[in-house]
Each structure stands twice: as structure tokens, then as C-alpha cells.
């Protein structure tokens, strides 16, 4: 067997059974090895941002890494933006980046680049295989790095390490370190802080603390101890819908965010860092909590967040039978008719959402109402791009659908964002994935128009308009989808949108609705 | 005025009058400043690979930098692959990458990343503006770095440097260092080497040595002193066609390349490095020249290559009136009919090529015959992706058309490569660019099938097939083009292709031909 075979074996032995790929010449031995392993599902993306974004979506839904296969520095570079999102979502991922044979590197052939330099900013771990004999330990290290704690691991595979012959190598399951024990001193300190500031305590839940079972515990603490629950503005994954505790999302605009947190004296972090302003603006604060607010971490990324919440509940003397409080019915409003609007789409999708759907939201400004309404929708998983990289939505939906073939995936997509990785639609068609893509076609980078106002520009001229608007010509999403083998239709009225959504939800396979706004 | 205004002024004062852009929030002050400068042409790309690839195409045709505008680390990351191509083509380029306000960086907001780390591998120069007062010198340094010698300069612009007020700043033209004087010792040494090895000397021409006037001098040397002229396998830009000297392109396959160079005892480099194998293969050499071949650099990147060739010609005692020898007529073969083939397309395009056309060739395996035929075509400029990054073709054609609005641009594009930056078609429609895109739709990564054979795999299985073929579903390029506002049509016979090409060449504006193979 050769090094590439060993790499495949290490991945498969550790249940890494999906490889999102866009291969090139230097990876041909690895492709040949994958070809000998039919138990590995290889999923082609026609652009590397699709590959890494799909691996992110897959990881969020399975809590397990997929492998990616990327072609040298430029192939990795094309995948970096969605690796950035994955890194911020703390998603496990194993990127395999092919490189020239090690002895070829000094010749500085045209495709040579500093792969470590490119990988490091967007990876939690970077390694390079030193030779065929190093491939098993290197692959095991990458696997371990992807999961303990979860993060983006990038393994550089020189061609001669892949093609080099090795003897029989026995591979097995990698032993992962268990999460650290709960620090009861911290739990007691936080319980005391909660008791000392009734009604003025907030808690930000992230990662596995945003799953239904952990949210239920957070909800018990919230109800019994008057703690307000929050989530970040960008949410890696949250289980949401009827019968689930619904934290308040900290708003994106700085003024609104500071207003929401104004009365908080103690902010408890479960699985992440202190929330800060997404961008800086002249004269506005970067931290969102008020001066003097005590910020306390109950548990960090990689800790057992569920157990930490249980420990806090118990320390506060709250019974596991304590009920949570949540709204159960949609706001009482009629069914919108006539000209289609963003809010009408949000309401329609929230009302029609199938049980156990997965919602991938990259609609930026357009689907703002959906998140609020989704608290009343059927139980579902909700995910967003987390690092501010644009172009995560279509790939993330693709990966989520590979991870959960029995669940409907709804991708709320902006026309601006969707174009960055539009190639992902082809993978949805190729793999016959059950994804409904709803494109909010407002033909503008609407968020940037807002940001121009934020910087004090109210009337814009020709140069700015041409950089912020997606018109002349308008994108025709029905044709784009058709070009990649995805059925699609257009709606500009509420009635037509509802009919298309009903139809898309009642069938299987990819479908795209261009919602003209 | 603020820092962003100063930056615009420095660019404009130095005749940087085109900005390819994909802006985001942290660049809003720069966008507002550009909006106050109608003399700057702002060209929106819907993906950053379009932006940097277009800047590369623009630079190749003008020998001047365009600016690009990229949004923080992920926006830069999306542009890196085509920066790699630009770096390998030695194209001048000034990337302006917005970043958070400097005081916001320690908060590690979601979009924060190591921009220097990302930029360095694909840039010849990286700088960060330290504050509003630093913006003029930093912009001037970036401009200088982009031209002397030409290369990719990346300037990081923190938002607070862009919005910070500065007093009146006077900006002017940056003085560039002249190229170094010709080293006559080197010229004499090379002339002696040529005389000592008659019939066994080769010369590789690159950069401005591949323009018609310099090629003419190289052709005089070739004719008078029996020197064989070569070009790299990947060509940044070459002036080619009837009445121009046509170097032999060193083939891509290693065996063919070493065969071409087998009889060369002295290889003279004009403007670049020794050609090496694109990839390493087990048991094959990385260097292409034979053992013992003397490799001598007449001039390096940044030198005056034209003057160096003149000096060598004079040193060899060759008269400026010496004629060159070149073929003048197409091979005598009929007009292909029936089922469309790659070679029929190559012949048709070469025969019909308008005078002064610009050919951007990213057809990889499919247009191999075109380059040979182009020696007999109407005089034109020929360009390829130079670093092996896929996805350069559509953007490069876009930038070339912005640079030369009066010239027809022909983009020979592969269906695999074209998908990486397909968004560039929209920019062609938006800017009404005179680009004819010919997609060689073979529905496969044909080069990788060849490479699988090169690594000894002759029969491939399901996993490899699904990673190397672009079928199930096939891409429908007519719909893709229509989706972005570009008129398009499909041909699967030679007759239909010829008719479509005639029609596309007789009109102005973007048109795409899907050539089904």
C-alpha cells in the first residue's frame, strides 16, 4: 500500500466517511486511493469554497469532521473564506491539501506556494506529512486536532508522501481526550453572582449549549433565577421552534445591541467569548456590555457545556422538573397577499417549515424577521455563516443535506451572497440533495446601503451605486439554477411564492425559488 | 479630507484609474471617497476572484496596475488564487484590503483574521496603513512596489485610517527607479557562449521580451546565430500571429519537454527563471534541461529586456536589418465539417481571429492546437493563466476588455475551469465588454484523466469518475450565461460553430458559445 492508502484507512477507521473534493494533479494518488475505498463518499464541488463550506455544514449537523480534498495553495486559498466561517463556528474539519513532491519544491514550479502560510490564519491546526512513514501519525494528529476541541485541521500532503510505498500499517481508532471536568469553584462563583443581581443577569449560549436539551436546562435557570438568555448575532447552530427555549439574538446594529444589554450587570458565557460589535464605527463602542458589567465564563469551547449547565442549575437549587416558559403560537396575523415582501417570505417559511427541517440562513438583511418567527415554527435546526465570510449559505446547505439525507434543508439565501459560491447548486443536483433554496432577489447589497448611511452618506453617486447594486443586468436565478441542473421558478407575489414553496416542500430533490423583491 | 480621499488621490495622481471592487462594510469610507472621484472607473465583481483576475488581465494589457478593493481577510482570501496567477505573470497590481478599525482588532470580532498572513504568500509586497497621516506614503509605497519591478502589492487599510481626518495633503507622481543598466559583461559572456555552441543554444523569452518588437530582435538573433527560441508552457502575454516571430512553447508533459530541450547545451533566459516541470512524477526529472546544460540569464524581471536583446544582437555583430524567418500561411487543410471537435474549433478561431484581438486561453487540454495555429493568424495578443490557479480565464478576459475597449477579446475557456469564477460573465454584461467566450464543453476535468494515466491508473472506478467528470447533470452554459445577462448559444457541429463565431465577431458586446464536444 502507499501513503495515500494509509491516509484513507486512518480516516475510515475513525468514521470520517465523507470527502468533499476538488482534486488536481498533485492529488492523483490520493484520488486513486479513494477510488479503492467505495465506503468513502466522495462529493465533488466545482469550486473549493463549495467544498469547505459543505464540510462546515456537514460538521455542524453531525459534530464530526468530513475530509476535504484541495489542490495545492490556490485550491486551499479558494476554500479559506468558508474555513474562516467554520473556524468561527468551531466546526470540526480535516482539510487535505495536496502539494508538490517535497523534492520538487526547491524548483519553485509555477504552482508552488507557501501552503502553511495560507492555511494558518484559517486553521486551528496545520501539519505537513514528512514522508510515507509519517502519514499515519500525521493523519491521526489531524483527526485529533479536528475534534479535541473541535476545529479546523489542515494537513498538507506532498505528492511523494502519497505515492510512497509503505509496509502494512495497522490503523485504529484515535483516542480522544475527554472534556475537562466541571470546575465547581467557577460554578459556585457564578451561582453567587446570579443570586446577587436578580433580574440583571444574562447568559450567552453557544455550541452544544444551543441544542434543545441544553437549552431546556438554560430555560429552567432562566425561569427560576430570572436570567435572560442570549445568542450571538451569528449562530453556528441552534435548535429552535415550538417547545424549545428561544434565546434573544443580540442585534447586529451596535446601538440596538448595547440597548439590549444595557441592564445586564453579569453576563455569563457558555461556550464562547464575550459578544462584541461586528464592526467598529466612529464614536460607537466595540464592547457591547455596559461599563462595569461582570463577564464570567461558565464553560469554554471544548468543555461539556450540557454538564456545566446542569451543574449550575443544581448549584442554584433548581429542580430538573422546573418548567421553562416559551411562546407557543404564531403572532396573530393574516396570510400576506399581493406583492411579495421579505417579511411575507419569512412568515410563509416559518409557518410551512417541516418538522426537523434544517434552515441555513444567509439572507443577511432580507430574512431578519425569520429568526424571531422561527421560535413558533416546527422544531428545526437553524444555522448561519458565523465568521462574516460571504458565500457560506449554498455550500452549508449542501453539506447539511449530505449529513442528514432524511431531513429537508431550507436555504434562505441573498442574491448577493449566493453568487459567491453559486457552483454549489450543481453539487446539490449531482447528489440529488433535498434542499430548497429561496433567493431573496432584492438586486442589491442591501446591507452595504445601510452601512453607507451608518458612515454618514445619505445620497450616493454613480460609483457607489455601481458597487452596491446588482442591477443592469439583474441576475436571473431561474436560469442560473437551470444551468446547473436544479429546477427553479420565480415568484413576485405572495400567492405564487406560497404555491411554489408548497410544491417544493412536497417533493424531494433540489429546488430553487427566486423570490423577486 | 479623510484618509480614504488621500488614497484615491494618490492612485489617480499616478494614473491608476480603474478599481475592480467587491466592497464590504469596513471599506464604506473608501467607497464614499471613490464616489467623490468620478474619474476613477469602479468595476464591480460579484466574487473576489473576478476582481483580482480582472486586475491581472488589465495589467497584462496596459503594463500598469489597477487597484482592487477587497473586504477584509475572507475577501482577500477569495482573491488569492488569481493573485497567485498575477504574481507568476509578474503583473503590477495594487490590492486595497479593508480591515477593522485598528482599535477594534484586539476584540477579535468574527470577521477578524490575519490579513498579512493571508496576503504574504501571494504578494510581492505587503503593507498596512498605520493611520490617516501614513496613508499617502503607504499608498505611494504600494504603487512603487507594484511597478519597480512589477508585481502584486497588497495594502491593508484599517477603517479608522480611512475615516480619519487629515489636513490638506498634496500628492504627486511617484518617481520610479529606472531599470538597471545592461550588464555588458553578461552580454559578452552570453555572446561567447552562443558562438561556442552553434545550433545548440536555446533562448526562453518572457515578459516584455515576448512583445512583437523584442521578438523581432530575438528572431534576428535566432536566424543569424542559430539560436532556438522558446516560451514557457504557461504564457503571461505574447504578441503573436502573421509577421511575428513565433517561439516554440515548451510542452507540458515532462517527456515531451525534455525531448524538446535535449540538444540544448546553452539555455539563455530573458526575463525569467529556468523552466522546470510543472509537476513531479515518480521517476521523472524536475529540471527539463539536460544534465550539464549551461543556463545563463541575459536579463532578469525588472530589467529592460528589449535593450538587453538589442545589446546581445549588437554584440553578436548582427545588423538591425537582419531578417527573421517565419511561416506565413495556415497549414493547407480544408474547413472541418460535421461533429464539432477541439481541433476544429482551434482552426476556426485561428482563421477568423480579428486583427489585434486579445486571446485569453484557459481551455487547458482543449485548445492545445490553437497555440500552434495562432502563429499564422492575424496579429494578436495571447495570454494564459500563469500560476496554475484555475479560474483565471473569464476574469482575465474581463480585465483585458476594460483595458482595451477597442479590441476584440476571445476567451478560450474550459467548462471545468470556467466554473471557478463564472461570476465574471455578469461583469462583462454590466460593463458591456466586447468578449466572446468559447466554452469547450467536454464535461470532464480532461487533464486529470490524463494525470490518472500518468500515475499508472488506467481503469477508474466510481469514486474517481465522480471526482473527474462534470456530468450528471451536465452544465448548461447557455442558461448560465443567460442568468448573468450574457447572450449565448450552443454548437455541436462545425457549421453551427462557425456561424455562431461569425455572428459573435461581427457584433459588439459579450457573447458566449457553448461548444459541445
From TrEMBL, chains A, B:
CDD domains: TPP_BFDC (cd02002), TPP_PYR_POX_like (cd07035). It comes from the Bacteria. Residues 375-514 form the Thiamine pyrophosphate enzyme TPP-binding domain. InterPro entries: THDP-binding, Thiamin_PyroP_enz_TPP-bd_dom, TPP_enz, TPP_enzyme_TPP-bd. Residues 1-106 form the Thiamine pyrophosphate enzyme N-terminal TPP-binding domain. Keywords: Thiamine pyrophosphate. Gene3D superfamilies: 3.40.50.970. Signal peptide: none annotated. Belongs to the TPP enzyme family. This is Acetolactate synthase large subunit. It comes from Mesorhizobium cantuariense.
